[in-house]
Amino acid sequence: MARIFDILGASQPFDSTDRYTTSWILPPLLLAICRLVISLYIFTTIFFIFGWNGAHHHPEASRASFSFFTNLGYWGLGFYFLFSFLHTVSYARTGKSWLQRWPRVLQVAHTIFYTTVVTFPVLVTAVFWALLYNGSGFPSEFQGWSSISQHALNTVFAAFEIFLTRTSPPPPAHLAFLVVLLALYLALAYVTQVTAGFYPYSFLDPNKGSGKLAGYILGILAAACVIFGVVWGVIWIRRWLTETKMGMKGKFAEHKNIRDEEMMEMASERMKQPGDLIR
Q1: Helices marked H in the chain — which ranges?
Q2: Cα–Cα distance measured from residue 198 to residue 148, given in angstroms and rounded to the nearest whole number
Q3: Three-state secondary structure of 45-57
Q4: If 87 and its partner were Cys, which of 76, 79, 99, 184 is the partner (CB 3.0–4.6 Å)?
Q5: pLDDT tens for residues 114-166?
Q6: CB neighbours of residue 1 within 10 Å
Q7: CA-CA-CA-CA torsion sign (81, 74, 161, 187)
Q8: Count of alpha carbons within 13 angstroms of residue 231, beta-carbon side
Q9: What phi and psi values does residue 136 have, to the nearest 5 degrees?
């Protein structure tokens, strides 16, 4: 089991160099504030949409939203940034994050959560603007704002985590979890059709052609894999560029210094067996 945890990015000591709670350019407290602001914006957007639907006599739209991958992913983004704020602010105050004290299984869950946050929003944005948006604009300012918030700013929020933190590229094993999550959503979409009488996305309707349906499903799966690979590469380049070329090792809590971080990372690297994945 320990070997599996290592492969999934939760080798011990977990996050010994505080990559999940630090930035190469932002001090820990400022990073925590940014994550909190993003989380508040996301939840404000969600509940404002719910309120708007209720005020305009469309409460069913709010209920139906839980059947859409976009909305589920947006909830996920909100909770990720909320928990990341808590971990980061605890690190800024004490030099050790709550995440580092959590049970190992929850540490693995957080690493996978991070991988979904830097991958799925890009997929949502690509599918929406390439397949779902008809190019005729939005019928109201509200619909324009809500669409941009959920189908454009979501990728901006993901980019914040990709470019401004010190995280390492996600373990390749996480790709399997992304595939499983997409498969589970596909099952949910068809459960929605049976229980509520509609397909969350029209291209999931098999009556429009099974070959076309298979093409969409395989295409989206392939896109998710490509996005994962691109994000992996971008994070690797960011880490190489900022840390190796620019010498910006990171902004740490006052309780730690850069020499401590470097020594812990060197020790962690020596503990790894040949062939182990980079955390």
Answers
A1: 2-7, 28-55, 59-64, 69-94, 104-127, 141-151, 153-164, 174-196, 210-239, 258-271
A2: 24
A3: HHHHHHHHHHHCC
A4: 99
A5: 999 999 999 999 999 999 998 888 999 999 999 999 999 999 999 999 999 99
A6: 7
A7: positive
A8: 30
A9: -95, 10
